[in-house]
Structures are given as C-alpha cells and as structure tokens.
Specification:
The protein has about 260 residues and is of the alpha+beta class. The chain is built from 7 helices and 5 strands, in the order H-H-H-H-H-E-E-E-E-H-E-H.
C-alpha cells in the first residue's frame, strides 16, 4: 500500500471508531478487550495518536514518552479523541517524504512506518469499538488486511520482546485464500522468524506441507481479514480454518498480545 492510502484509511478508521464509541456510550463493555469500557478505549487510542503525531511533527530521533491518558469522560472525551485523531492525520499529510524521526520497526521510511502503524492501531481499536455494539464489523479489504498481517508477523513479532516462544521448534503457516500471500512463522526459543511467500491462486502444497513441500505443524487459512483479526486476537480461532496441531495455534493466541 502507498503512504497516501494508509493515511486516507487512517482518517476513515478514526471516524468509524468515534462513531461506534459515541453510539455505544462511554460505559459500554468492550468484549475484545476484557476489563475495558469504551472510555478506556478512547483514552488509550487518543493518547497513542498524540504520541505518534509528536514524532512526526517534532522529529524526535529517540524514544519519547507519551503524554498519559486524560481524566476525561463523556462528550468531552469523545471530542478530545476526535481532535487528536484529526491532528495525527493532518500531521502525516503535511509531513515531508524525507521525514526523519524515531521508529521501532523496520520500514521503507519513517513516514511509511508511522502511517502504517497508526492505521493498524486505529483499525484494531475500531474493531474493539464496534464489538461493543454487538453488530457486524466494518470490512477490512484483503490488501489492507494482508499488509496488517505483515506488520504483525514480521514487525512486532520479529522483535526481541515477542513472547511467542517454544523450547521445541514449531512451524505455523498462515494462508490468505483471497490473496497470493502465505506466511511461514518459525517458532523457537528465539523471536519468531517469518517469511512471506507469493503463491499464485492460493495454491496449497497439501496438508502438513508448505507450498515448497516443507512440513509445517499447523496451518491457519481464511480470508486476509479473518486472519488479520484472528492473529490480533479480535476473532476466535473458529473464525479461520485450522489444520494440524492446535497447540501451535494456541501458542500464538496465548502469547502474542501486544501491550503498551
């Protein structure tokens, strides 16, 4: 995806999040984030938006603390969230292509990093807000979802702080049936190593094998959107098709949560 596409999608996702939060009300429980209410979701996401915008506008080249969550509620909190979201979008739109600032995962450029990261941050939390309403979720397109899977598997869980570990090496395959994308995640006592392959037409090497014939312990397959939300623990494993050793999938779901 292009940076402009990331920013445009970020703009829409923030509007959708705010609309769902307003409809649900600040005290509504968020099923996908046990213990959270909508007010907690707005405070957290709004804080992250302002924190990210600071790197873009101020050009911080080292880690910089966030400003903390506000002691706001109700309409005042919702307005605060919307203001911060608009500021983030406008900051990214106005940033130069050669922006220099701190990032915490590999990316083609700092501007590409922050546009993508804040899009996925906001999309996942938009799903949280919509889950509080109990109705259908706004669709995430296949290309966007695949891009989000890439960020999660190769970015977040390529870092030393990933808790997805196993004393016995295991291999997880992730296959998006509506794209040509297949990811192979090798899990060990070190950070997971993920390789993305392009398999035209979603061709399958058969049960227990990768497209190149190598055996895997477990495969998760489904639409890119279904996989994206399942890997982010926003949908249950039942939302995708599982083949092979279920304990490998549970290893992921039990240990992959990304925390602030």
């Amino acid at each position: 995806m292009e940076i402009t596409e990331h920013i445009a999608s970020l703009s829409e996702e923030g509007r959708l999040l705010a609309a769902a939060a307003e409809q649900a009300g600040p005290g509504a429980s968020v099923p996908t984030c046990p213990g959270w209410q909508i007010r907690h979701l707005l405070r957290h996401t709004g804080m992250v938006h302002r924190w990210a915008a600071g790197f873009v506008t101020e050009g911080y080249t080292t880690p910089h603390p966030d400003g903390g969550e506000p002691d706001l509620d109700g309409d005042e909190l919702l307005n605060w969230f919307r203001t911060g979201h608009r500021h983030l979008v406008r900051s990214l739109e106005a940033a130069p292509a050669d922006l220099e600032c701190w990032t915490f995962m590999p990316a083609p450029s700092p501007l590409a990093f922050w546009s993508r990261r804040q899009l996925n941050e906001t999309t996942v939390h938009r799903v949280d807000a919509e889950s509080a309403l109990g109705g259908p979720l706004t669709t995430v397109g296949a290309d966007r979802a695949a891009d989000g899977i890439d960020e999660l598997l190769t970015g977040f869980h390529g870092r030393p702080k990933s808790r997805v570990r196993s004393s016995v090496p295991r291999t997880l395959r992730v296959r998006a049936v509506d794209t040509d994308a297949v990811w192979t995640v090798r899990i060990s006592d070190a950070p997971p190593q993920t390789v993305r392959m392009t398999v035209p037409g979603g061709a399958d090497g058969g049960p227990g094998t990768e497209g190149d014939g190598e055996r895997v312990d477990c495969e998760l397959s489904g639409t890119a959107e279904g996989l994206y939300l399942t890997l982010w623990n926003r949908l249950p494993l039942a939302a995708v098709t599982l083949r092979g050793d279920r304990s490998v999938a549970r290893l992921w779901t039990d240990n992959s949560a990304v925390t602030w």
